[in-house]
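COURSE: Structural Biology Practicum
ASSIGNMENT: Worksheet 4, Part C
STUDENT ID: 0417
INSTRUCTIONS: Below are two proteins. For each, the amino acid sequence is given first, followed by its structure token string. Answer the questions at the end about the second protein only.

PROTEIN I
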Amino acid sequence: MTNAATGVPREPDSGARLSTLFAGVEPPFIDFDRQLSATALQWQAHGNDADFAEMSAVVSRVEPGRMYVIIGRIASAGEQLALAGLAYRDARAWLTNGAAGDTARVPARALAEVVSYFALSAAHGLANVTARLLALELRSRAILTSREKQSGGFAPFDPRDAGWLPINARTVDSLEAAAVHHQPSVTQLIAQVRDLIDDPDWARLVERRHTDFHRWRPQSIEGGVAPNSPWLEFDDYQVLAVRDGGRLVPDDHARLIAEAGHGLERLEAAMRSWIDLFAGARHDVLTYVLAKSMDNVEIDVRDE
């Protein structure tokens, strides 16, 4: 850094000289850590049955590959939830190791953002496995494809980004429209996604992500460049407020960690409820597929 007035190099703030993001201590486990770990493992454990689930679905007249992809994406989302939980625990360590100022603020904020990154990844998985479960049968698939044309009908192993729906109100509207003819076990799955996106704590996590990815992400250090104009407005002129060093008052890292944690709690609750409902919903969708495939089948039960 250089002092603009004198041209003399200035030593960077301590926050710019980090050698690691980790605090060097392990925070105590809390009940939420254990609950999240159990939920993440429950999702990942479905991966053990990918082949058998695929075989059962094909017997029910599901297009080959579709159930295998669903199970794989469930296992993947479980890992993403687990990684969000680990990042949350590592972020909390900066609240317990005694570090202060920029030394704690910069890495603590970074780890809170990692929480949000993996939480949003897992949440996208939640929405997309729900869409692909509905797309096992033709009626729901047609409704989804008409509303989400870029999806291409959610073909198995489709590598295009367009086949991956965002988790937002429009997507949930499409899921609800595609499930109107299904049993409550299926619509209850979608209700978990709806409840998540409508939750204020989750909305704050998403909004923070928008700042990080789509807007000006302010620095984390005292005296950084503030994301607002340095010009003072008067009736017929402007004045540039010049000072040595920036005007930024950074966000409190403890608040950012808590914000990420609250959003993660809402996600974990939604994923826990969803996976508990999944077996029943899968059964009902497969039953629907099999029944529709037999609409024009006549079974002769006469005695010879």
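PROTEIN II
(use this one for the questions)
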Amino acid sequence: MSDNPALFDFLRHEAYGFVNRAGKDLVGLREHLQLALDRSATAIERKNDLSDREVAKIIDDVCRWTINRYNPPKRKPARTSEQRAADYLLVAELHEMTVETGKPSVRRTAAISGRSKSTVSRHLIRQGVAPRRSKKVKSLTQPTRKLISVLDETFHRRDAGLIDRDALAAAVWGSGREDKVAKSTLSSRRKRLSASVRELSAAGVGYSLLEYRELIAVQRGRRFRSYKDAALWIDDELRTRGKVMPRLPRAEPSPQLFWADRWVRDVIAIMRLGCFGRVTSVAQLEPVLRIMHLLLDLTSLYPWLRRAVDSFHSTYFPDNLHLLADRIENQVTRRAARDLAHALDRFFRFNEYMPPVFDMFQNVDIVFDVLAKAGDIDPQSRFRLEHLRDHVFWGEERDFLELEPYLSALAEQELKGQWHFPGYANEPK
């Protein structure tokens, strides 16, 4: 406790104002407090009974207190996360609109959107729209382009890792499985991979690759400073993270297929979730989040979903999320969490006794309003959902888990051309 609480309190508020403006600068803070002490008549009256040594000690106490314990209030961002997400989605559409005014470019998109060129470029890169990079990629050889597609699927925009050389070669030139191959084939793949690695590293498309013994070291969005630094990083990466398995580029199913329709797949996934009434991973919630469309940017919601899944309070996800929602400071995120908890609670209670599959579909529509939302966004998808309800599920006394193998068999038959959606002739355009 200070010898003069009134003077300490006066200097404390002066210190807070200085730190809010200039940051935690100890030398500047001490000078500012001394000047404030000399200027203020109130402070002069409060220090009259103190010696210069005692005043200096109080100034030191205030400086130490402020530097160690005071945290300046965070500035409120100029835009909310939802506004930033709207900009992120809008930039790609505006970029396509620049075709009408000439060749699409970041400069024209920035002029239309009112955002800076760096902001527009960052949003486009996050969505995979990079005209300069695409132009460079097209000029590369076909094996190197295949290598880029594998690395793009394996690594995030600013990620890094180690890949086994033969596994990467198998992903580029084989089926992606490390099957036994002839020695001559393996030797040929290694030579071609080395050539593609050198070409890709020099292409300037965001990758820095280095061959190290039986490994390929990959840095995306960064570069290795030197071979010595790369060797140290590789040893540390092997010890902490190990090797990364390459991922083959995902082949998106044809949207013309009935069972590949996004709305059909999401509804089936939600019905499967309703059969168990438990959420064991955030991935199970993805179809629900897509249909409910609670937020444009779900980044602020995901940590709370993970906490609700891992909560020791109970195994019932809606209750866990509802309790956690009271602790969310952001009002928009808090409302989204409560809406999700309420919707899942209703849905789980509706399906508590495993109703027939037709009734479960009706429960999905009642809780999540699937048909109306699909009709607003994609009338063809609504038509498929109605066919699923009226022709596949109608009259079924079995529950979803009993009928699911039959649905999987229909999907396989459609891929082989043995089953066709009978409503194509009358499907809305």
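ANSWER KEY EXCERPT:
Q1: Residues 424-429 have pLDDT under 50 and may be disordered.
Q2: Residues 5-69 form one domain.
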